[in-house]
Amino acid sequence: MGTTLCRKLPGGPTLRKRICEVEAYIGPEDKAMHAYRGRTNRNAIMFNPGGYWYVYLCYGVHWLINIVTGPKDRPEAVLIRGVEGIIGPGRLTKALCIGETEKNTKVSRAAGLWIETGSPYPPGEVIRTPRIGIDYAEDWVDAPLRWTLKPSGTAQR
User: Fold this and answer.
1) At 114, which helix (H) or strand (E)?
2) Is the pTM of this model over 0.70?
3) What percent of the chain has pLDDT over 70?
4) Which of 13, 103, 120, 123 counts the most CB atoms within 10 A of its CB?
5) Residue 45 domain boundaries
């Protein structure tokens, strides 16, 4: 939250958007995580050390972007759900032209997709809530692993 997602558009400008909504997925015990049932071809990148993009197609329609954050062999990731001006993980990837090309790539300027240091949001502007759309995750459904701006906050979205 507060860091800047940077995207060098193919043949175009570099877009910089401050991250304002994320969800955490915290290891193989997290029943909402794609790696909950172990390593597959789809989620293998999540077993790398942090610093890779886990980009996947959701419902065959929307690309979603996660940054792998765990140590080697411990799958952990953060889903970027929104940036200022673009709320919704599918809208975000569409607006920033993020898709299959970025799948399993290193977070880097050379790859055209990276994170820059930003500034934290003021105290009281960020709230923790349960994650969205994980009704299947049993005892993990209510875990407060989503961070977003308060609806009545003064920060611009």
Assistant:
1) strand 113-116
2) yes
3) 96
4) 103
5) 4-149
